[in-house]
Structure formats: C-alpha cells, structure tokens
C-alpha cells in the first residue's frame, strides 16, 4: 500500500506517519512506501518501508507528492484559523486551491486513491447553545471554516466523478497540543493543560463554564487511520463525517488536570479576553454524531485519559524543545 | 447607482438589463451607468443612462467589468449544469474561480458593492420525495451544484469580511425559456410549453406525475432586482436564500398549456428517457421557504400566468429567431 501525507510535517501528519512506521500496515495491508509533503520537506521517521520527503506549495503540487500507484492520500495541509483570517489570499490559496491541486493530482492516477481530508468544527457556527446533528448546515463564521466546508464539497464531487474516494473528517479542537502557546484563538484549550504540567503559569480567557468540542491527538490519529481503510460504499454522495468528539467545559478540563497532577490548576489565571471569547464563542460546543460511530469511528476516551496521554506521549519532547530541562 | 451585470448576455442577464433600461431606477434610486460583461460583449439595450459592454473570461475578470464606484453587481455568469458535468475544468474555472475573481474585483473597490448571485436548486439533492426547509444541507449530485454551493460559501465569507454585501438566490428551474431545445437535462420543462405554442411536436422524457420546482423569468427577474435593493442587515452570516418558487407536476404544466392554447398538449409525445430522468430525478421538487418571503421576496404567480407571460414576452421573438414566420 502506497501512502502520501500532505501536511506531513504538521502535528497530526507526524502522528500519522509515526503510527504507520510503527505498525508497518494500514487496515491490515502492509505499507510499501510513504511520501511526506509539506512546505519544507518533513523529517522522515524510521520505518520498515521506504519514506520519501519533499517540500513545496500545495497549490502548485509537484507530481511526486502523489506518485502513480498511490493508494491513500492524507490531505492534512492547511493554513489554520487565525492565519487564514489574517491573510485571505494565503488561506484561499492553500485551503481551497490546494484542494483543487489534490483533486487534479488524483485525477491523473490510473486508479482513484482514498483521500482522507481534515475538515473542522470551525466550519460550523451557532455558539455556546448549539447542539448539532449530522445533517446540520455549515454556516461558517471564519474564512478557514468557509474554505474547509467548500473543500469538503469539492472532494465529495470529485468522489462522485470517480477521481478519488474521499472521506472528510470534521475534526474537533485537538487537545492537548504540544509545543508553545501560539496566536490561534483555540491555543488556550491546550495551554491550560500543557503549561501547568510544565510548571508554568498560563491565562484562561473564558469562564470555567465555557464548553468546547474536543478530541485527543491519539483519537484523531485513530480516526484518520480508520477513514483510510474503511468501506466507503455506505457513504453515498455525502463524504463528510463528524467523528464522536467530547463536549467538555473548561472547568472539566481543569478537573482532569488536577486528577493527573494535583495542584497544577492553580497555575491557571483567569484573565478575560473578549476578543478570543468572541472567536471561540462562535463554535458549536456539542454534536450528536450518529453516522460516524455507525461507520466504525471509535467513541472518545474519557478526558482524564487525554491529559494522561499528553503527559505520556508529548510532555518530555515539549520540555526538551522549549529548553525546560 | 452604478450597476454591473456579469453574464449580461445570458437569458436572465438580458431580462435584468431590459428592466433596468425600462425603469431607469433600481429600488427607487436612478441608475447612472450599466456595464454588461459576458464571454462576448453583449448587445446594449437602449437606456436613459450610459451602457458599457465588454467581453472576456470571468476567471480573469477585467477591472472594467466592475469599475470603481460600482454599487450593485449581478453575478449571473455560469457554465450550466450539463456543460459543467461534461467539462470539469471549465465548470470549475467559470463557476468557482470566476467567483474568486468577482470577490477580488469587489475587494479593490473603495466601497463594498451589493452582489446578487444566482445559485441553484441543483445544489440540493434528495429526489422526488424531498421537501426541504430553509436550513437544509446542500448535498449536490452534480458538479454545477457543487460549484454553486461552494461559491455561496465564499460569497458569504467575503460579505462577513466586508469585501462585499452578497445575496445568493437559489433559483428554481426557470420555465419557460425561449430559443431552441438544448442538451440541458432540464430543457424539456420549457420545451413542453414552448414547442407546442410554436405548433411543433416535442418529447416528454418523464411521467406526467413527475414534480419539479420552477419559477418564471418574470418572477426570477423581480427577485434579482429585490435582492439588489433589499436591506441585508437581518441576514447575518447566512447570505443564501431559497426564493418562493412553485412545486408543480409535468401534468399541471400541460394543463396550464391547454388553458392558454386548447389542443396544444397533444403535440407532446411521451418518450421515456432514463438518462434524463436520472439527472432531473435527483433534484428536490419542493421547498418550504420561510426566510425569503419574510425578507420581501414576492410569492410566485399561478402556473397559467407563467404560460401566458411566455406567450406575451418571448414567443414572437422565439418564432422570429427560429425562422418560423
């Protein structure tokens, strides 16, 4: 099985690549080659199969990124929410025209590949009161969500036409992200766990009762691998799925943090930030997914396991990366 | 008030241009200039204001098509259903990247213009059993509908960002179209009225009980003019509207034809065409629009008036155009 990961240098791209390298298989079939594509050529994991890496612009996708014979494409390349809002042309180029380029690359192959695309909860709006069913309309409140929702439609049409066989997963907010706090409006959802576990103070810009739809990196990676190997025949025209995330409050995240490291939540300072609250306040905090679980997407593990998994999987690397000993 | 019509040489574009020329005003404000853009420069109607015409590719839209100071843009340019299905690249270029070009042209203006966009019932699926509410999800079953639905999203986002002030109207199947039968799957809905009124035989490829969501050219033109002048403040993020068309059966269309010209329906021969039935069979035949009527979009006139209006407005021109005396 030949696999390409577009956005292979990103957080989830590296998680998927590591899992493939560790397993050596996808859906029970041996992996025979892996191609990693990102803006700059990503580092290759040590793997029992050949790994090619290359860098470039996804809107001018080099043919080598999706070579002839490719069976599965993970299309994870994106300009994220805050960046797409700050730079309209860049977001459109990467998130929308990059998807056109992926479609064109797949059209050129002799056999249509499975394409697994990461769409986002940010393609929905409705705010704290919203609890959305699988057939809810996407009315995005930001350019990133707009470009993701439009890309979902283009990929569904490309599947109908036989250019590819796409599955779009509308991923929740991923917690806990490693690394440093950044300017993404959702950054604090990870920071309120990561920073206290590192012994550092951090700011919480919304009330403790604020609710959010989340998934762990482990669960998101499992979902992406399942989407790559599942039977898509029951999906029909509709190639988009809302996987079963967790609807949690910030207070519940802090309670889970306390369970894993008592006293850590004292490092979280309440500092209201109306600008951030306005952005994240538009996202729906709850979904009622029926279709994805019926198609085999695993239910989410409890919140405390999410915190424990971050401590096990990513805390040491984050500490080293940030020179914290 | 300065107005541009993109797709100004098409059927609805010419209807809108003629109405502006006849009225001299839009929403009570005098029209001061009109620019008509299409693949080839469209003919200019005789009008009490200056009319500029130019031709070109909408995906490489010349700046003169939406000059500085433009107040209203009618974005009607499209590659229609059958053509977008036959040529994926052409449909994407005109219907999707053409819309990007319109957004970019509007961004360059000092003041964001009103943009009235024609989306389509073909952006929905569900078939003969579907009766859709305003918040129904678009799950298109063809590339044209996909490109229209994606363009709606891009225009809503461009409005949120302040590049423009867009209203997207999901127009029903328009009957009665003048001219000749063509290869569009929906061509027969007009032909079963137009051809018998011309004294010509025509074929009906679906059963008499087949239902379809329609609007007359007069009503569609009124809606477009209303969308250009209405208050958009109550629309919020959602810039798409399903105007109140008519849900009718083919049998009801033939009954209306008989009321206007007794005996004419005898010229309609039943010749089943499974290929055409499969395409039009995917479109939903009924909607329950609440939002558009609340925003002032006029209810549809009765079907018999649609047939009478065609006979009054377009029959003579069609007869001349086709050399039928």
Any key phrases for this structure?
11 helices; globular; 7-stranded parallel beta sheet; homodimer; UDP-galactose 4-epimerase, domain 1; 325 residues; 2 domains
The oligomeric state of the chains shown is: homodimer
- In DSSP terms, counting alpha (H) and pi (I) runs of 4 or more, how many helices of chain A? 11
User: In percent, how helical is the residue content of chain A?
Assistant: 25-40%
Total of domains of chain A: 2
Number of distinct beta strands of chain A: 16
End-to-end distance of chain A, in Å? 40 Å
Which spans of chain A have pLDDT < 50 for at least 5 consecutive residues?
none
Description:
In chain A, a hairpin with a 2-residue loop joins strand 2 and strand 3 (about 30). Chain A is an alpha/beta fold and about 325 residues long. Chain A is built from eleven helices and 16 strands. In chain A, helix 1 (about 10-25) packs across helix 6 (about 215-230). Helix content of chain A is about 35%, strand content about 20%. The N and C termini of chain A lie far apart (about 40 Å). Chain A is globular, with a radius of gyration of 19 Å. The longest helix of chain A is centred in the N-terminal third of the chain and has 20 residues, at about 90-105. In chain A, the strands form five sheets. A seven-stranded parallel sheet of chain A has the order 5-4-1-6-7-9-13, with helices on both faces. The interface of A and B includes residues 96, 125, 137, 139 and 160 of A.
């Amino acid at each position: 099985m030949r696999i390409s990961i577009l956005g292979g240098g990103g957080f989830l791209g590296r998680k998927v690549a590591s899992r493939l390298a560790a397993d050596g298989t996808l859906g029970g079939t041996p992996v025979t080659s892996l191609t990693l594509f990102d803006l700059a050529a990503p580092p290759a994991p040590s793997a029992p199969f050949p790994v090619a890496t290359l860098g470039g612009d996804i809107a001018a996708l080099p043919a080598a990124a999706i070579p002839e014979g490719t069976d599965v494409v993970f299309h994870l390349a994106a300009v994220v929410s805050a960046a797409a809002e700050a730079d309209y042309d860049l977001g459109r180029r990467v998130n929308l025209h990059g998807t056109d380029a992926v479609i064109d690359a797949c059209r050129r192959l002799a056999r249509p590949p499975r394409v697994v695309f990461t769409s986002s909860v940010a393609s929905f709006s409705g705010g704290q009161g919203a609890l959305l069913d699988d057939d809810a309309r996407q009315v995005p409140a930001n350019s990133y969500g707009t470009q993701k929702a439009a890309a979902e439609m283009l990929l569904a049409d490309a599947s109908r036409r036989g250019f590819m066989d796409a599955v779009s997963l509308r991923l929740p907010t991923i917690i806990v992200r490693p690394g440093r706090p950044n300017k993404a409006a959702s950054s604090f959802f990870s920071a309120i766990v990561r920073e206290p576990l590192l012994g550092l103070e951090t700011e919480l810009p919304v009330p403790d009762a604020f609710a959010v739809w989340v998934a762990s990196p482990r669960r998101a990676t499992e979902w992406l691998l399942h989407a790559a190997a599942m039977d898509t025949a029951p999906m029909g025209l509709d190639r988009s799925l809302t996987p079963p995330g967790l609807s949690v409050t910030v207070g519940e995240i802090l309670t889970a943090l306390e369970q894993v490291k008592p006293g850590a939540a004292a490092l979280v300072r309440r500092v209201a930030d109306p600008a951030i609250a306005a952005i994240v306040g538009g996202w729906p905090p709850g979904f009622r997914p029926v279709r994805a679980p019926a198609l085999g997407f695993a239910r989410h593990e409890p919140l405390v396991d999410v915190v424990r998994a971050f401590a096990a999987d990513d805390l040491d690397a984050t500490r080293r990366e940030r020179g914290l000993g």
